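Slide 14.
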Amino acid sequence: MLAVHVESPGSGATRRTQGDCLTGPPLPAQDTIRVIQETVVVKKTIGEFARHTVLLVLGSVLCAFSVNSILVPHGFLARGMTGAALIVHYTHPVLPISALYLLMNVPVFALGWRFVGLRFVLYSLWGMAVYSAMLHVITIPLEIADKMLATVIAGAISGTGIAVILRSYGSIGGAEILCVILHKLFSITLGAGSMILNAAVLAVAAVLFPIETVLYTLVYVAATAQVTNMVFHGLARRQAALIISDKWQEIALELTNVHRFGVTRISGRGGYQGTDRTILYSVINRRNVSALKRIVLERDPNAFIALMAAEDVTGVEVGNQPHW
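Slide 15: predicted structure.
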């Protein structure tokens, strides 16, 4: 093996092999880089956890306020697992609602692990703990005499809370996990999935409770589903733009290089004159629509722009798929 002769002041000559040089301790600079990288990863993980915890707490506060401040004082039922827990609580008031909710979620979490993933289940466990704590802590009654108004208000608050929660990496367990599974497997919207799952809860409730209570709960469920869809999907709405212009090269250059919009060129042909045309296709966030129009019309006032809703977009940069 090749030997390297190393001399240092004040010490005798030492002999190190080439293999010793290669397998020796890392250089200080390498250690520093590794420590910096590890620190960045830890900070990113902590920041990510904090951000998603804020979403879970905010949504849980809204949902718990809806249940304890509006639904329970009026004797209404709730949606999903919370509704099932209320049914058991009303008929057999042995355990508090929070404890019943925890027990009913055990098989649901097993399904979530199987069809969604471990990260979703872990964040959902954390979210369920937060929601159960909020159910126990938030007990402020909201005086609303009109029952119909109470159901609509409760539905709007719950729907907003659920949409905020599902913008995180997890959920609060129960029906939300089942809705996520339906969304991933069958592309069923969260609101539609909620209506399907709550039909079973209301069917049982119709046997045990006055039909008027069940009908009020149906209004609450419908309002919750509608608001959930509006808030959850509305926050991630995308638009697909088709642009036809004689100055397509200038437009494409500014969209891609200056504003970082993804653009695809499509070859087309006019239907009347048969002229070859280049069509620009781009999917953008809804808030960028006005900027895209301004850019195109500044370059070519006679340009043709067609905008279409792009509800389900998969992609790293502009995709609107949920984090789970």
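Speaker note: The longest strand covers residues 276-285.
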